[in-house]
Design brief:
By secondary structure, the chain is an alpha+beta fold. The chain has eleven helices and 33 strands.
Length: 518
């Protein structure tokens, strides 16, 4: 029994030693014996790397490699042929050289896959170990040196260039996108760094202010101006020439004198087009081209599922992610050709529970005061309506004027959904031009059937709601139209006042989509 125990114990000890040895080798890869020489001297001794060493000396970076060996370095050294090829088109700058130097030591066997490494230039590069084949910013490593007393070097057959951040890429490739980002800089009071000084006459706390600039785009999406070791993003956005070509085609589709990308209002690009492209164009991590396919559903950086309607092209490696151009880019006509709906309640703002007042840009002129409301109506377009009730038989003057959503210059059919029992006789103006006089008694007179301006189309009552329409021809530039309802008298309406569910602005080219009771 004792002998059996002895053999088992010995086997366990040997097994334990073997296991420890495997664990040691797994975590501490054995490196070749250190060569008792400076890494700088080793590089200088290789005649095939002489042009790199000459540039190091030209920019006085050789002072890094002092005799005390206090610091360690890793260098990615392009061959003479690589520098010659690069020099045919551009000068090798000091920044380029600094981008090939790291102020730390790399043990490549301990890196699996891709790892961002910070260069002496302070920008990040990408080191990749693919089953023992090394790459520096996707450039193959052709030689790995032994470890010297103050570092090691790798030989590459191309000159690596410092990679732009995503913001720097955008600044070079789409000025409209850059402006969209820059315009979201906001100045905020940093209360943690600011010192309270006391109270002013109004009782507000006054600070010895420290102001911080916060970019709302970076807060919502990704800090594209910053570089991180582990955090990256993928951006897909059309470059300037592709972007402008698409806008030019959009301008030609609109007509009305539009013929160039320069005719498309910057306001529309910033408010409509940019958010749409960003929703479908920013993703977490570095996605390869085969991972981004037209028709696929991907989760964007906001965590939303989006269906891709493009193919990416021309990958650019950035210091904090990947950037792609569009293979082809067309502005969807749904972004600029569809009906624009103006909800009635959108002209109001809340001032308390079930209490409303007009927005600041609404102008009301009246002989008496009438309080507007946003009533909940389950069958309304957005579950609520705008309602202003007058006294029965009110004969005084009342006018309300408000802005539509921005419109492109062209002819529109404006369709008003309203209540057949609340009204009177109204003159309706668009941009100070009388476009329609409507008597709400017509709903009763014609038994809830109103002839549209479109031949063959009739609006039919939907419960007690119905519609009427009118043409507008005086929108000559992109922007908000100004609509004014002027009350002319009570007519024979059951109740007097104004009730609006919505006003649709239908481009003339889309009026064929109007049905009898849309």
């Amino acid at each position: 029994m004792k002998r059996f125990t002895y053999y088992i114990t010995l086997a366990l000890i040997l097994s334990g030693l073997s296991s420890c040895n495997e664990t040691w080798n797994e975590h501490y890869t054995v490196e070749p014996e250190t060569v008792n020489q400076s890494v700088w001297d080793a590089i200088k001794s290789d005649s095939n790397l002489s042009k790199f060493t000459a540039l190091i000396e030209k920019y006085e970076l050789d002072s890094l490699f002092g005799e005390n060996y206090n610091d360690v370095y890793t260098l990615f050294v392009p061959t003479n042929d690589a520098i010659d090829r690069f020099s045919e088109n551009a000068e090798v700058t000091e920044a380029d050289i600094a981008y090939h130097i790291l102020r730390h030591y790399i043990q490549p066997n301990n890196i699996v896959g891709k790892k961002k490494i910070q260069t002496y230039l302070l920008k990040f590069a990408m080191f990749d170990n693919q089953l023992g084949q090394y790459f520096y910013d996707e450039i193959p490593v052709t030689y790995t040196s032994p470890l010297y007393v103050n570092g090691r070097y790798f030989v590459i057959d191309e000159v690596a260039t410092p990679k732009p951040s995503l913001y720097e890429y955008i600044s070079e490739n789409n000025l409209a996108f850059k402006k969209f980002i820059d315009d979201q800089d906001s100045i905020i009071l940093d209360k943690e760094l600011s010192k309270p000084l006391g109270f002013n006459e109004q009782g507000d706390l006054v600070y010895d202010s420290v102001i911080t600039i916060l970019n709302l785009f970076e807060e919502e999406y990704f800090e594209i101006t910053e570089e991180f070791r582990v955090k990256t993003a993928t951006l897909v956005f059309p470059k300037q020439d592709v972007y402008e070509e698409a806008l030019t085609q959009m301008a030609l589709n609109i007509g009305s004198g539009y013929s160039s990308h320069e005719d498309i209002a910057e306001e529309w690009q910033q408010d409509i087009l940019m958010p749409y492209l960003l929703e479908k164009g920013i993703f977490e991590n570095q996605l390869e081209q085969f991972e981004i396919r037209k028709g696929d559903t991907l989760k964007n950086i906001l965590g939303e599922d989006v269906i891709l309607d493009y193919y990416p092209a021309n990958k650019t490696i950035c210091s904090n992610g990947y950037a792609y151009n569009y293979d082809t880019f067309v502005v969807l006509d749904s972004l600029y050709m569809n009906t624009i709906r103006n909800e009635g309640e959108s002209f109001l703002r809340t001032i308390g529970k079930d209490r409303f007042t007009w927005n600041d840009d609404v102008t009301v002129v009246s002989e008496e005061t009438f309080v507007p409301n946003a009533d909940f109506v389950v069958t309304a377009s957005n579950d609520s309506i705008l309602k202003v009730s007058f006294d029965k038989g009110y004969e005084g003057f009342y006018s309300v004027e408000f802005n539509t959503e921005p419109l492109f210059p062209r002819r529109y059919l404006m369709v008003v959904r309203t209540h057949m029992d609340y009204g009177g006789l109204f003159d309706i103006y668009v941009n100070d031009e009388l476009v329609k006089t409507f008597d709400y008694y017509d709903f009763t007179k014609y038994r809830g059937i109103i002839q549209s301006e479109i031949p063959g189309i009739r609006f039919i009552a939907d419960g007690r709601y119905n519609k009427f329409d009118f043409w507008v021809d005086n929108i000559t530039e992109y922007g908000e139209a100004r609509i004014r309802f002027e009350y002319k008298g009570p007519s024979s309406s059951r109740f007097n006042g104004l009730l609006l569910d919505y006003i649709d602005c239908v481009p003339e080219g889309r009026t064929h989509l109007i049905t009898q009771n849309p």
